[in-house]
Design brief:
This protein has about 160 residues and is α/β, with parallel strands linked by helices. The protein contains 5 helices and 6 strands. Helix 1 crosses helix 2 and helix 2 runs parallel beside helix 3. The radius of gyration is 14 Å and the shape is globular.
Length: about 160
């Protein structure tokens, strides 16, 4: 029920802004604690990635962006598979390149980033909102409508 309500809110937000691309930004899902510098997702992370795919399947996503690290790619994988989209890999530290690609979009996109890179992406898309993401916080969902006056809707995964 909670997932359905969250999906409905997200889709309603996407339809309120007509003709403007929507960018949905999430942090990668939970990673293995002892996985080295490029860990895979944990069991909880894999479940969150599936929940993300379920939430986003009808959001009109036509592009998916991840970083070069496995945890972002594994988070995006279920949705990419369901939609038949090959994610575009943009280096985590290259915010300018990612933002340039997002501004070139005509349709909706998903960005799977990192807790330390998402605030810069949100700011670079024209939002002044404080977007600190705690080390153990995987719940944030940022929905930004692009356009002359970008708008931000900040949501959280259902618990």
């Amino acid at each position: 029920m909670k997932c359905w309500i969250s999906s409905w809110v997200l889709l309603a937000a996407a339809t309120v802004v007509s003709a403007q691309p929507i960018v949905i930004i999430v942090r990668h899902a939970e990673k293995l604690v002892h996985g080295g510098n490029d860990p895979d997702l944990s069991q909880a992370g894999a479940a969150r990635a599936e929940a993300l795919a379920h939430m986003m399947k009808d959001a009109g996503i036509t592009a998916i962006f991840t970083s070069e690290l496995k945890r972002t790619q594994e988070t995006a994988a279920p949705l990419a598979k369901a939609l038949g989209i090959t994610p575009t890999v943009v280096p985590a530290k290259d915010t300018a390149a990612l933002v340039q690609k997002l501004h070139a979009l005509a349709d909706n996109a998903l960005v799977v980033g990192h807790g330390n890179t998402i605030p810069d992406v949100v700011k670079s898309l024209g939002m002044d909102a404080h977007t600190y993401i705690g080390e153990d916080d995987y719940s944030e969902v940022f929905v930004i409508s692009l356009g002359q006056k970008p708008q931000l809707l900040r949501l959280h995964y259902p618990q």
